[in-house]
Amino acid sequence: MPDAICHVHEAPDALTLAQDLARFVAERLQEGVSQRGAALLVVSGGSTPIPFFKALALTAVDWPKVSVTLADERWLPPDHADSNERLVRAHLLQGLASQARFVPLKTADALAAHGVPELEVALQALPWPADVVVLGMGSDGHTASLFPGSAQLAEALDDGRTARCLAVSAPLLPNVPVDRVSLSKRALLDTRQVVIHITGLSKRQLLEQAMRAGLADPLPITLAWSRANIPCQVFYSN
Ligand code: 6PG
Question: Does 215 fall in a domain?
Answer without folding.
Answer: no
